[in-house]
């Protein structure tokens, strides 16, 4: 599994602070199938606890969200749904042997390292200034931006030339709503496109 974070480029309704705030998307992706196995959207910057929860999320089935159709249900893959205990969505469940992590502070934090050691997961730090180590997840972030985020209200872009006027007044999503939308997009679009 490869993990990384990126600015979500969509302003969020702040829950801790009044007004519009920036957010970060933490994503985990299975190296071999290119499936997104975990998504977290957080306000401001990711913390080690957010990375730890993203690691735990990939190891458990995600229930279908309200309003998701039956076509997004996880197909029978060797484990009956009755054993899962939920109506699982099409996000795969992965118990990684190793994770390729960024060099950011939240990824090197002792909490993240200790949690992965307890789960028996090896940590493989990505080489600095070597884009090929995490190329698949960088491509995902580009596809997420052009395939979903650019169409949302509150999109601020990665530079000033992409912004509209008064985007602070157009904020529609909080962190949880945007996370649900990104998960829907991943299950509906990303997991089903030809790679």
Please characterize this protein's 3D structure:
By secondary structure, this protein is of the alpha+beta class. The protein is built from 6 helices and 7 strands. The strands form 3 sheets. It has a 3-stranded antiparallel β-sheet, with helices on both faces. Strands 2-3 form a two-stranded antiparallel sheet. Helix 1 (48-57) runs parallel beside helix 4 (110-119). The longest helix has 14 residues, at 175-188. The radius of gyration is 17 Å and the shape is globular. The model has no long low-confidence stretch (mean pLDDT 84).
Instruction: Give the SSE string.
Output: EEEEEHHEHHEHH
- Beta strands, count: 7
**Pairing-aware structural class of the strands and helices?**
alpha+beta
In this structure, how is the largest beta sheet organized? 3 strands, antiparallel
% residues in beta strands = 15-25%
**Overall form:** globular
Mean pLDDT: 84
Radius of gyration: 17 Å
Query: Treating each run of at least 4 consecutive H or I residues as one helix, how many helices?
Result: 6
Please give the oligomerization state of what you see: single chain
Given as residue ranges, the uncertain stretches (5+ residues, pLDDT < 50) are: none
| Through-space gap between termini | 17 Å
Helix content: 25-40%
Neighbour order of strands in the largest sheet = 1-4-5
